[in-house]
Amino acid sequence: MEINVKEARNKISALLDITEKGGEVLISRRGKKVARLVPMADAEKRLPDLSAFRASISVKGGPLSRTVIDGRNAERY
Question: What is the pTM of this model?
């Protein structure tokens, strides 16, 4: 559904009902689409928590910043 800004202001409750049921509303200003009203994403659709995965990664060697600095210094001389 597409609606202009003036109508959207007057019908916000009805537009929220549409999105709550899974619909999408495009809002336009002077004929140009400027916003999209969509339903909230379910918690199930969010990206998984990667904390455990990140904790399982072991880092080898020194800090990358030190490696970059050493490499730059080696190129200069």
Answer: 0.51
